[in-house]
Amino acid sequence: MTTKTEKAAETNAFSALGEALESAAEKFEEGSSVARQSAKNAAQATRKVFAGGVYNTAYWVSYGLVYSTVYLTELLPEDSSFRRGLEEGATDAQAKVHAEKKTDSPVPADSSPKTKTRARSRSAKKSGAEKAPEADAAVTA
User: At what angle do helices 81-102 and 3-75 cross, to 10 degrees?
Assistant: First the structure.
């Protein structure tokens, strides 16, 4: 073989190697884009399944709690204080939730400090009522 033939063979070998590397890079890039798309599709499907599972779980937990409470309420006598408490508590909770949903804008905060009024208990009312006759007697004397 001559030098010219050897150089041509080397050039053809490097050229073939370059083409093979370029082809491999293209195939790798195509595979990567297909893998990326497949991963996106799998993530969307997983999200749908997970969201559906969460919804169904929440639905059945809620349904079970409400149904069993209503059933229990119906078993109790109508004049039962426990039954009345369950019914009134449910009604008040529902009214509060609906009232909060109707409030579209938040209440503006006042710049002046507010003093909190203390709730009076039944015993406080009784003690005030018991002291009232004494106070009236002191004023009339």
Answer: 130
- As a whole number of angstroms, the distance between CA 62 and CA 53 comes to 14
Give 124's DSSP letter: H
Instruction: State how far the Cα of 18 lies from the Cα of 25, in Å rounded to an integer.
Output: 10
103-132: pLDDT as tens digits: 755 555 555 555 555 545 444 444 444 444
For residues 66 and 33, give the distance between their C-alpha atoms in angstroms, rounded to a whole number.
Answer: 49
The residues, any chain, with a CB within 8 Å of residue 45's CB and separated by 6 or more, are none
In contact, 85 and 69? CB cutoff 8 Å: no
Q: Kindly report whether the global pTM for this prediction surpasses the value 0.70.
A: no
What is the CB-side half-sphere exposure of residue 46 using CA atoms within 13 A? Answer: 6
Distance CA 62, CA 69 (A): 11
